[in-house]
Amino acid sequence: MSPSPAESLGFEFVDSALEARVRAGLEAVEQALRDSTRSEAPFVTEAAQHVMAAGGKRFRPLLVLLAAEFGPTPVAPEVVDSAVVVELTHVATLYHDDVMDEAALRRGASTANARWDNSVAILTGDWLFARASDLVASLGPEAVRIQARTFGRLVEGQIRETLGVTEGQDPLAHYLSVVADKTGSLIATSALFGARFAGASDEIQETLRAFGEEIGAAFQLADDILDVTSESGQSGKTPGTDLREGVPTLPVLIFRAQADPNDPADARLLELLDSDLTDDARLAEALAILREHSSLRQAEDDVRRRADDARKLLEDLPEGSARAALESLCDLVVTRSV
What structural domains and CATH numbers belong to the chain? Predict the structure, then answer.
């Protein structure tokens, strides 16, 4: 049996029946993604499938399918359709993010903006949003409303990230609010869609939406930690990429909030963070200091707390293999970051 994209996360099933349903669902999602990204224009198809072909964790479709297990019809066609909607939306944001970040690589392959140009990447992202919108329309007006509000949060988060911290604003609080909107919102919608289209109760839908919001933020913050601690690039990018590019992350923001300029290690790290970290030697030194700093431990504790908060939300759900699977996602978020 070939591994599913979700297994690149290190996720393992403990129930064979649940595994079979989720595997079948993920295979259906993959086929639907290929179908949804085909155009009569060959170049559009090539550009739209460029990031998709590089692979991916499919974390959002996985969560849709697991959340659907809490409804009476977990294999309803609308469940797969909604999983495709959230993944198309996610992939579309990657095209736009890569343009804004001037990124050259995505999942080890050239980004669309690097392979072609910014205009092609932006327009391809727009086309993917259009495909997601077309599909979500078939799921009913409430699904369209949920998707529109989610998209609004995604864009607002990106705008606030682009504008940066305003005068008098706490940089860490600003960053966490950006993470909630840019990452947590779509993962929350993934869980909500799965429960909704499987026919789960309103109470279960809300519990899973809240779980998705919490675990989504934790998942992103765990990636922040991996950027510092990873030696093998298991985060999907070269360790220290965020540091090199000056991208604010949880460990760095915690460090800056409490750095003591009179402490030699703190003073040196502040100097490095404010310097040109495209230099490999400086980057290696900054990583070495940050790995030994208490701010990294505090960031890890924050991820643990968020995963625990997400786990507590699951106590309101019926016991069973689906709940156990979601609990294992909480464990996964912690173990991949520490």
Answer: 16-200 (1.10.600.10), 205-338 (1.10.600.10)
